Amino acid sequence: MSILVTRPSPAADELVSSLCARGQVAWPFPLIKFTPGTQLDLLPARLSALQEGDLVFILSQHAIHYAQPALMRAEATWPASLNYYAIGRSTALVLHTVSGYDVVWPHEQENSEILIQLPELQAVAGKRALILRGNGGRELLAETLLNRGAQVEFIQCYQRCAKYYHGAEQGRRWRNQGIDTLVVTSGEMLQQLYSLFPEVDRDEWLLHCRLVVVSERLATLARALGWANICVAGAADNDALLRALNMG
Length: 248
Hints:
10 strands, single chain, five-stranded parallel β-sheet, Rossmann fold, five-stranded mixed β-sheet, alpha/beta
């Protein structure tokens, strides 16, 4: 098994190192990179404007990576009176580390569909909800909170930017390396991976690779694009991906 890890750095490099330490052949191939968001300067004031019991949602570790320095520059902290939610275990752990507060996250599966099913989020009418995220992304969480009567605001903490690669050149490179397993952690990256390579590489190689994704939603998208050999990891963190890859 030769594995291509398309998630962004540094997580891609960390996963590749773990795989190589276990005797696997793996390569990092990050498809996107991150830059600071356009609204970070607004974060301290937005947080301080929230009332006791209001809600803060962190949709990725990258949001905290950029949010925490912004708070420190403003000599501000995460308010203790708020209720904090994260999209998954790793994000919750990072937020707990920087804030010291308990963070609620969906244990069953790390996605918005399960997050909005949490009992704590069923009666939110009149609450204010601040969502920390990147540019773009899904709107399910915000739309659901609005429908339940919450007031929703966003802070764009980071921006995702596609990395440029020459598709035909990369197709030759990875086919020569014998890549037969792909790790993809978002729909944006899956579409980008599919579109990057020439049709001949897609038909003869890419769509025949085993694909490891992080949700059933991604698996459905992958099947629509033409993949058949798909494995769904239990979560998006590297430990869950390692477990999924070692099952193959």
